[in-house]
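Thread amino acids onto this structure.
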């Protein structure tokens, strides 16, 4: 933990202006090198910046950053953690926080909207007075309405990329409109996603396709081949609240099957809750990525957990059940069990990805799959 804190402080120091807090934009620029000003100018898309001398560059940046329209566009694109910082800075001269994470302010600083200062080993974040003045000139109700709509679309984009892996843009737009009674157009969609194109994203849009950066493939042809392989499968589209949970790249459903596996790891293998939780997380991810069973079992080996034959025999049904109740990209967000049940006996061979397994359904009076020896209804049910 101490090493992490030291690294955070080192990164914060490397980006900070050395000295007391200054809140006038021209005064801040006077403390910066031309290279630093040029970097901000590039993020502002300032035309002709390479031909400007330092003072000319500072003057041009001042005019750009003090524009209400510029401030509006950047603040609308700010992520929730960035907007939280903006909201705090609008009310105070500066914030002192040595432990603040770079991703909470780096985008804003690159845009020239906030700056960091290091004085006597204390880190301060401040917003120039000119930026506050520009924001104050905005019509607040319309700004907040547009920001809310903008952020909602971005959350849907992130959720669709995480849940489906790849999805046509027109399908994402249709889901947004259906769940919100809106009339989002493709041009509006493209304008919103382009507004965050200079951010570090976990998704991309090309050739009318939204896809996760975690999708294996070397070209758009690979992605289109994947889309072709799932074209006959329906999309799992949960209610809005549930769907938007997938905007968090780390989110997954903690199913009863995962709980049973975790219970077994704690009770039968004698491992801590913390280790069991981490192990279950990794097994769920491996199942979601459709890794082979051997790769999934390596998660135990990686943690130096040596399993006896009896334990392996007990674990296999649990892991198979987890696999078959995990949402996957190849089943368009459905679990293999859900898709199989929907198609009943009409499913074509190979359309549902499953390990060879017994049924995942456990009777109330059957022995609990966790291996405790108790009946399921008195153990993990």
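Threaded sequence (381 positions):
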């Amino acid at each position: 933990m101490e090493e992490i804190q030291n690294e955070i402080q080192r990164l914060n120091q490397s980006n900070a202006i050395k000295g007391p807090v200054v809140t006038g934009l021209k005064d801040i620029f006077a403390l910066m090198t031309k290279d630093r000003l040029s970097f901000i100018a590039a993020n502002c898309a300032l035309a002709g910046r390479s031909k400007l001398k330092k003072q000319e560059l500072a003057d041009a940046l001042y005019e750009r950053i003090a524009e209400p329209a510029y401030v509006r566009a950047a603040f609308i694109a700010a992520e929730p953690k960035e907007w939280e910082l903006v909201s705090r800075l609008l009310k105070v001269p500066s914030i002192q926080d040595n432990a603040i994470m770079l991703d909470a302010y780096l985008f804003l600083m690159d845009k020239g909207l906030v700056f960091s200062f290091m004085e006597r080993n204390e880190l301060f974040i401040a917003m120039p007075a000119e930026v506050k003045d520009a924001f104050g000139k905005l019509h607040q109700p319309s700004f907040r309405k547009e920001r809310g709509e903008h952020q909602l679309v971005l959350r849907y984009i992130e959720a669709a990329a995480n849940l489906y892996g790849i999805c046509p843009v027109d399908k994402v737009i249709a889901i947004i409109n259906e769940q919100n009674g809106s009339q989002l157009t493709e041009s509006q969609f493209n304008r919103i996603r382009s507004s965050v194109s200079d951010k570090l994203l976990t998704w991309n849009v090309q050739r009318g396709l939204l896809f996760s950066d975690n999708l294996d493939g070397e070209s758009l042809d690979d992605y289109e081949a994947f889309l072709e392989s799932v074209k006959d499968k329906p999309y799992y589209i949960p209610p809005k609240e549930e769907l938007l949970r997938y905007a968090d790249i780390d989110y997954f459903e903690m199913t009863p099957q995962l709980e049973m596996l975790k219970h077994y790891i704690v009770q039968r293998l004698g491992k801590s809750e913390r280790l069991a939780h981490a192990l279950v997380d990794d097994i769920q991810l491996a199942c979601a990525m459709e890794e082979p069973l051997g790769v999934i079992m390596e998660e135990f080996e990686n943690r130096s957990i040596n399993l006896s034959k009896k334990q392996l025999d007990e674990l296999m049904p649990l892991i198979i059940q987890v696999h078959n109740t995990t949402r996957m990209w190849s089943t368009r967000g459905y679990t293999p069990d859900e898709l199989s049940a929907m198609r009943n006996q009409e499913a074509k061979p190979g359309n549902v990805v499953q390990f060879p397994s017994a049924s995942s359904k456990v009777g109330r009076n059957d022995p609990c799959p966790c291996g405790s020896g108790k009946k399921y209804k008195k153990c993990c049910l």
